[in-house]
Design brief:
The complex is a heterodimer of chains A (159) and B (590).
Chain A (H helix, E strand, L loop, with lengths): L1 H12 L1 H64 L2 H10 L48 H16 L5
Chain B lengths: L5 H27 L1 H15 E6 L6 E2 L5 E14 L6 H12 L3 H9 L7 E8 L1 H18 L13 E10 L7 H4 L1 E4 L5 E4 L1 H5 L1 H5 L3 E6 L16 E4 L3 H18 L3 E7 L6 E6 L11 H4 L8 H4 L9 H11 L7 E4 L2 E4 L2 E4 L7 E4 H6 L3 H11 L1 H10 L29 H7 L8 H12 L4 E2 L4 E6 L2 E4 L4 E3 L4 H18 L11 E11 L2 E15 L6 E8 L7 H4 L3 H12 L5 H9 L1
Parallel strand pairs in B: 2-9
Antiparallel strand pairs in B: 1-8, 2-3, 3-4, 3-5, 6-7, 9-17, 10-11, 10-22, 12-15, 13-14, 16-19, 17-18, 20-21, 21-22
Classes of the chains: A mainly alpha (159), B alpha+beta (590).
Chain lengths: 159, 590
């Protein structure tokens, strides 16, 4: 009790201590929201930057897709029938005539197959449970099953 | 506080309070008035982002070996952001020089935009090359005059472009009649017209997805993965198609015919290997359509134009009679040069009397009188039942847009008369498309089975390839009838020493000359000439149908259409790796 009185006396004699306390509390109140705000700002800025990056990457993907389409078509143009024939003629090839062909039996030869550009659809197979019911059946289920089979076997018989 | 200044503070306080109340009142009015609130919500939505439709790339079309027939290429839309434009003159002049746009129109569009518009499209489908020039010029203008301020300073500010995909056809006019093209509909959206592009438009185009794209990067989300449109692998072989188009063009030039059509079909599967006709269009310049296809010319005569086929139809009449058992190959018929059916007199093509003939002779000499008699032996009921089973008068259901059904008048129709039985027996008074004819006659080449004719071999969707299975359309005749008739037609060509014979290969076939109906009766000076043939007879790999419309060098199918057949076969056997019969038998014997 004596200590408390002394403590109060000390504060009454030095009011600046109280002021420091008030200023300290005020600054603390200011600091915490500032800290939260700065963390929030930091996260927001990073999220915004990432979002912007995603948008740019989406544009990039779109550009690559367009380029892919262009390149594929370019390939189609340079391998078109007219272009291929022109190049073949320049290289000295001539069109084969019916009488020019020589037919041979080549063991293991398989005729040219139509183009396969993607795998065929996967056939879904019916999943069968390999585990017998004895391993998953509860005692009640077993009793029910037994009762059912017993009742089936006792009714409907011809007199 | 100084008392002299007290009233000033009081006044200031009152002003602040009033302003506060005004703000509060306005806020409450926004909150409580639904009209105001709606307006704010709309504005918030407008500025917070926008709806963006992602159009999938249109699926590709390829031939059976994977050669690209229809793909996509990047093109650009050029426009201006109205509020960013500094100098309309520079923009109009640049677009006039580089893209060839009308200076006055561009300037007018920029200076007097429609009320509320923020963006104006000035040109569409600008090529990559032109856009590169535009881009380079814009950079030069920016470098040279970028720092200069003032209304008259040259500036391309506000000029923008957006990339997009456009349909392109690397083979230009090759197989154009089969493919069709992609144009714009009334709303400016892409749409497939004719052929495969129209028939499979929905599949090829894919499903566009509309998503909300926020302006706030914090709310940005991944765009959904929009799968490409379905790609198609056709049954046609690019090389065979090209060869057939060459033959068609040569035939047109040699005979002076109005049009020429060739269809090549695999009788065992119904796969269309080639379908060449005239005219053809460079599909990359589809806007020339109306110049190329004048006066209601069909886009693809093979499926869209029915005509009276003439004597090639006798194959169907004879098939029906043999199958029903009313005649046999050696059944004798005494040709008197004339027969009356339903009150109408029918004569032979040369008005001649051919005396005693077997059915083989009737087919060999293409005797109208004999075939009309055969039809009468069969009777109208059975004759038309067979014709229906052959699919005459019905759509084949081929997977290309624009097919027509032709016309087969049957007893009971108001415009059917008894005489029709006689005239129909040799292919007059009945209209069929080349595809209907080849499909029907392919039954003779395929042990009596008519296969469903189709152009799409595989569909590639969601990274899987779905192959179409051959389907039987009808079995109008028995295997025995088909084999017998096939032999008869091969023998008739051999006995006739026809121009249609092919060295090294046994082929069967039949010529046809059809008179053309007009409002004043049939014409004899201009005809439709046809030929149908298949081979090798013991293992048919192809059926060929040839139609020349109104040839000028001769009116007879045996003189203009038949000689084209060996030319076609000589190309087909090389492209399809079919050895001569002798070699084939030796190889199989080993």
């Amino acid at each position: 009790m004596k200590d408390i009185k002394a403590f109060k006396q000390a504060y009454l004699q030095t009011p600046w201590r109280k002021q420091i306390q008030v200023v300290g509390v005020f600054l603390l109140c200011l600091l915490i929201p500032t800290l939260i705000a700065s963390i929030y700002l930091n996260v927001t800025v990073r999220a915004a930057a990432s979002g912007r990056e995603i948008l740019l990457m989406q544009d990039e993907i779109e550009a690559y897709e367009l380029e892919n389409a262009d390149l594929r078509t370019q390939l189609g143009i340079i391998t078109s029938a007219a272009e291929m024939e022109k190049r073949a003629e320049e290289m000295g090839f001539v069109r084969i005539q019916q009488g020019d062909a020589l037919y041979l039996v080549v063991p293991g030869y398989t005729p040219r197959q139509s183009v396969i550009l993607a795998p065929p659809p996967i056939k879904t197979q019916k999943v069968t449970i390999a585990m017998p019911p004895d391993f998953s059946q509860s005692l009640i289920d077993l009793i029910k099953q037994k009762l059912n089979t017993d009742s089936l076997s006792t009714k409907g018989k011809a007199p | 506080m100084n008392k002299e200044n007290a009233w000033r503070f009081a006044l200031l306080g009152i002003v602040f309070v009033l302003v506060g109340f005004l703000i509060l009142g306005k806020m409450m009015s926004f909150q409580l008035d639904p009209k105001n609130r709606q307006q704010f919500v709309e504005e918030q939505e407008r500025f917070s982002g926008g709806w963006h439709t992602v159009y999938p790339a249109r699926g590709h079309i390829m031939d059976r070996w994977g050669h690209l027939l229809a793909g996509n290429i990047t093109m650009y839309e050029v426009g201006v952001n109205v509020d960013q434009v500094k100098n309309p003159h520079t923009i109009a002049l640049t677009l006039n020089v580089i893209l060839g746009l009308d200076y006055a129109k561009v300037r007018e569009a920029i200076e007097n935009p429609a009320e509320g518009s923020v963006y104006i499209v000035l040109d569409d489908y600008v090529s990559k090359e032109n856009l590169e020039r535009l881009k380079k010029y814009k950079e030069e203008i920016q470098t040279t005059y970028g720092g200069i301020e003032g209304k008259d300073a040259p500036s391309l500010d506000g000029l923008v472009w957006v990339s997009k995909l456009q349909r392109t056809y690397p083979e230009k006019s090759l197989a154009s009649n089969i493919l069709g093209f992609v144009g714009r509909d009334d709303e400016g959206k892409s749409k497939g017209y004719f052929g495969v592009e129209a028939n499979y438009d929905d599949l090829l185009a894919g499903l566009p997805v509309t998503v909300w794209v926020p302006n706030d990067p914090n709310r940005v989300e991944k765009l959904p993965n929009v799968p490409e449109g379905t790609s198609l692998v056709l049954t046609i072989d690019r090389e065979i198609q090209r060869s057939m188009e060459e033959v068609v063009d040569a035939a047109l030039e040699e005979t002076g015919a109005k049009s020429a059509t060739i269809v090549v079909l695999d009788p065992k599967t119904g796969e269309i290997l080639a379908m060449a006709t005239t005219p053809r269009l460079d599909l990359n310049k589809y806007w020339n359509y109306s110049n190329v296809f004048k006066d209601n010319t069909p886009f693809n005569r093979a499926i869209s134009e029915a005509y009276e086929p003439g004597s090639v139809y006798k194959v169907l009449t004879m098939a029906a009679a043999l199958d029903k058992g009313v005649v046999k190959p050696d059944t004798e018929f005494i040709d008197t040069g004339k027969i009356e059916v339903g009150g109408a007199e029918i004569y032979n093509w040369n008005l001649g009397v051919w005396g005693p003939q077997t059915m083989l002779g009737c087919m060999q000499h293409s005797l109208n009188v004999c075939l009309a008699w055969t039809a009468t032996q069969l009777g109208a009921k059975d004759f038309y039942a067979y014709m229906k089973a052959f699919g005459i008068g019905h759509l084949t259901g081929v997977d290309m847009a624009g097919e027509v059904a032709g016309r087969l008048k049957v007893p009971g129709d108001t415009d059917w008369y008894d005489a029709e039985l006689g005239t129909n027996s040799f292919g007059q008074g009945v209209a069929a498309t080349p595809l209907q004819m080849i499909t029907a006659i392919s039954a003779v080449a395929n042990d009596g089975k008519m296969m469903y004719p189709h152009i799409v071999r595989s569909i590639i969707s969601n990274s899987h390839q779905y192959d179409t299975e051959p389907r039987v359309l009808s079995i109008p005749i028995s295997t025995q009838t088909a084999v017998t008739l096939s032999d008869m037609l091969a023998e008739s060509l051999e006995k006739e020493a026809s121009d249609a014979l092919v060295e090294g290969y046994r082929v069967a076939g039949k010529t046809g000359t059809g008179e053309i109906p007009t409002p004043y009766g049939y014409t004899s000076d201009v005809t439709n000439t046809s030929f149908v043939g298949w081979g090798p007879v013991d293992d048919p790999r192809f059926v060929v149908y040839i139609w020349l419309e109104k040839p000028l060098t001769s009116i007879w199918g045996s003189e203009v259409a038949a000689p084209i057949f060996p030319r076609i076969v000589n190309k087909l056997v090389v492209l399809m790796n079919i050895p001569p019969d002798k070699v084939r038998h030796q190889l199989y014997g080993q």
